[in-house]
Amino acid sequence: MRTFTYKQPASIESTELVQIVNEEGNISSNVQRIYSNGLKKAFDRMMDYRYFVQFDVSAVDGQRLFTCKKISRRGRVHFKGKDIVTGKDYMIAYDGWQIMIPDLIITDGQYKIMLNKEMEDWSLFTLNEQPIARWQAVYQETHFDITLQIEETSPIQHEAFFIAIGQAVLFVGA
Length: 174
Prior knowledge:
Strand 4 and strand 5 form a beta hairpin. 13% of the residues lie in helices and 48% in strands. It has 174 residues and is mainly beta. It is globular.
């Protein structure tokens, strides 16, 4: 199992570049909340910082690896992920709006990954009912200690996929 940790500022509006550290203690990538322009950032302030949600994960050299963005259309919310390296698009949508904390489905047309969203425990990514990764945020006074663990059996091994989705969907949410 591969483990990655980082300290996310407690304020959801933060656009600070956050370093992801791997199990060897080395910086493996960075994550950052992105606004494409100042107008969107100002409007988002009025919407409690939950309308324009986009997180980019980049390599240490700054090359973008994966992005996850919230899409709101006609009262429906979903997220769009994009693997910048492979060009693959992912749709992330809620499954079961009628329940208090619905699961999410992540699909690229080939894989159908389920994300069980937990508020106080590990949120679990599963494929064919088998865990492939888990993400957890533990609140401290000034930040969240976030841990991502990726199973060796996961078909997706790059942390950028799980971190971008975790930040947009689990950290900020709908």
